[in-house]
Amino acid sequence: MSTHASKAAIRLAFAAAAACSLPVSGPAVAAEAGVEAGTIEQITVTARRREESLQDVPVAITALTADQLLEQNVRTLEDLTAYAPNIKVNAGRATTSTINAYIRGVGQNDPLWGFEPGVGIYLDDVYIARPQGALLDVYDVERIEVLRGPQGTLYGKNTLAGAIKYVTRDISTQDANFNVTATGGSYNQRDIKVGGSVPVVADHVYLGAAVAYLTRDGYGELVNDGTPRVFNRAGQDVSDKDVLAARANATFVWGESSKLRVLVDTIQDNSNAAGGKRLNNLLQPALNDRFDQRTDMPVDRDRFISKGAAATYTQSLSDALDFKLVGAYREGDGRQFIDFEELNANVFQVPAQYSDNQASGEAQLTYTSDRVSVVGGVYYFDGTARGAFDASLGTATALTKGSVKTQSTAVYADTTWKLTDRLNLNAGARWNEDDKDATVFVQQYLGNLPANQTLFDQNAVPPGFTALGPPQTNYTNDRSFSNVSPRLGFDFRVSDDLLAYVSYSEGFKSGGFDMRGNETLNPATRNGYDSEIADNYELGIKSNWFADTLQLNLTVFYTPYEDVQIGSQQFQVVNGIPTNVTAILNAGKQLNKGVELESVWRPVPALTLVANVGYLDAEFEEFLAGCVPAAAGCTRDISSLNEPINSPDWTTFLGATYRWELGVGDLSAHLGYQYRSKTKVANTTPSVSDQDAYDLLDLGVAYTTSNQAWRFALEGKNVLDEEYRVAAYDFSPNLTTQHISQIGFYGPPRTVSLSATYRY
Q: Which of 252, 528, 536, 676 suits 435 as a labelling partner, its CA being 20 to 30 A distant?
């Protein structure tokens, strides 16, 4: 039997077995004392800014507890892709720690500074504004929540598609503790995670810290193609990992209900560049290995560092009224060398640098009585993102640099009224105003720097460089974007075990300025682009059956979008040189609709079966672009020629966990299978980067001692070694009708790891 046929047989056998056992989802197994054996654990979440059972929240949400994250071997936010329907999280193109997150077909594919993400990332209550450094590693965590659909009336920053909330461990609820996990595995993986906390003054002062040092060798290497250049060091790793992350926590408790929590954290990513695979044979044949790379650029100079501090103060003002104040500051900077042609030659390559800082503050009041629950607050955000890059094509180099300052002010309120013992009215609104000041500069030069140097590092134009005419872009401008987003819904308790709900909410993503815009070819770029609006309609049920051994949650959604922001890239002649010209278009209308099923079943106490199934129908209803040939004021609708990216029709996760009680400890085995239908990962249509349907299989076995102090686990991810693209570059054809840049970036290969955890 061929390898391909063997894989197919294994997949079919597993899928058939899993199908017989029902679909699976996020909620965890009841492993804690006090939970009746054989029932499903009820997870507490704070999706509505108050503690509630997951099954009582009329919102599409998936939550994973710390025990689940450990049991399912969730290492980074990227692994969440398997556990929630209709989401996709992966590392951005050619990076290790830049997040590319999509929920229900909406997200941010381009991590350029100044763009607003479709999916909000939160570290506790602090919104992380930029994708760089936001692909967080999982350590010292209490739970992770994934909220699908527009967020704004409950969360500090409005987001269009949803939010991912990373909740760190609350040390004030625990006695002195210490934990350490050491992991070794494929590609010389060497991970160490250490954490602990201690009460310094009993019931009043707590200190804690956690450190994660995560390293492995590269999935690929630089290939010597016979035309060596100084920076083509054959055998050097690409797609490796070298990340140091740390957090420190100081918590102070006094009086009856006053609490101050101070958290500082840092992420230092020293990984080499992530290699991509050429998808055509232009100039040189494509390499066979999907992670190997040709380049004359340095791959060991990509760096990113992020750090931040946050303080959260909470106090109960009365039995019904609680107050919360959150203040935070974050900053980050990085450098990246992007080889768009993946060749040992300077055809199209871009060294870039990036930096940002953000300060935010939020004041919130929560009122709770027998009949009404109200959350209201004010939010302020002040951030600046800046960057620069060289776009080098042969003997010409275009310098692009700029910055955008964003000041966001919002007032929000969300209310739940108990109309009867079973019927609740949920209503909320958010007023938001974003003020943006942008500066953009683009200048084309005749000249070419060595692969390890950049124009933006020079204090002046270096010798031998000649400016080709005046700057193509040189402006400073500002705009304000305001919006009032309502939310309205009802939830009805059909029975003690069945909740049904219906809701409407509006999503808002503010407009902005294209930091790459070419004013010479597109004069309108200096005026920026408009905001994007979504109307989200949902129906859902949350239910428990058969004495809490079966949990079924179902959501149906219908979401039309207006003034959809879409980036376009194509090569045009400027000063006689083919130049990559970008534009951010409010291209028209998009309609997303679908169904999401999440379920957990425990047919016997030792066995847990889980399934997530997501169906998504995403399409452009209107996609306005310029006419060909170009004519002033002329547009055409090309919606039939395009489709939204990262919007597969089907996403499925099937999983099973079985536990054996051995007397001297517990042995557990788990498997997880995920399927994703055909996915577009680049804007060009059609594209050689389109990813056909694929499936992944993970396996694991773990032993935990009877006193819970030691845990040993053997884990396998992508055990069938499936090749699948998660991101790509595919530019429109240049003047020779060839594609200069058609590069695919792939998900991790098969890996096996062995870990040991000690907890005190």
A: 536
Phi, psi dihedrals of residue 315, rounded to the nearest 5°: -155, 140
pTM (two decimals): 0.92
**pLDDT at res. 733:** 54
Q: DSSP letters of 504-547?
A: EEEEEE--B--TT--TTT-GGGGG-B--EEEEEEEEEEEEEETT
HSE-CB at 221 with a 13 A cutoff on CA atoms is: 9
Query: Parallel, antiparallel, or unpaired for β 162-168 and 119-123?
Result: parallel
Amino acid letter, 69: L
Residue 62 located in a structural domain: yes
Q: Which domain holds residue 194?
A: 22-759
Would you tell me how many other CB atoms lie within 10 Å of the CB of residue 459?
A: 5
**How many alpha carbons fall within 13 Å on the CB side of residue 293?**
34
Q: Residue 351 in contact with residue 339, Cβ under 8 Å?
A: no
Tell whether the model's pLDDT for residue 716 goes beyond 50: yes
Burial 224-263 (b: 16+ CB within 10 A, else e): eeeeeeebbeeebbbbbbbbebbbebbbbbeeeeebebeb
The answer to whether position 10 is within a domain reads: no
Amino acid found at 448: N
Mean pLDDT, residues 121-129: 94
Does a structural domain hold residue 196? yes
Beta-bridge partner residues of 669: 658, 701
Q: What is the reported pLDDT for 323?
A: 97
* Residue 1 or 139, more confident: 139
Question: Tell me, what amino acid is at 498?
Answer: L
Q: Cα–Cα distance between 389 and 349 in angstroms, integer?
A: 10
Dist CA 462 CA 454 (whole Å):
10
Which CATH number covers residue 50?
2.40.170.20
Contact 756, 711 (CB under 8 A): yes
Q: What phi and psi, each to the nearest 5 degrees, are found at residue 525? A: -65, -30
E strand map for 106-161: 106-107, 119-123, 126-128, 141-148
pLDDT digits (tens, 9 = 90+) for 313-345: 999 999 999 999 999 999 999 998 888 888 888
> What are the pLDDT digits (tens) for 588-618?
899 999 999 999 999 999 999 999 999 999 9
Q: Structure tokens of 454?
A: 């950049």
Instruction: Name the domain count of the chain.
Output: 1
652-709 residue pLDDT tens: 999 999 999 998 999 999 999 999 999 999 887 788 999 999 999 999 999 999 999 9
pLDDT by residue (tens digit) across 241-260?
A: 999 999 999 999 998 899 99
Closest by CA position to 492, among listed 599, 558, 420: 420
Q: For the chain, what is the total number of helices (H) and then of strands (E)?
A: 2, 41
In tens, the pLDDT along 538-554 reads 999 999 999 999 999 99
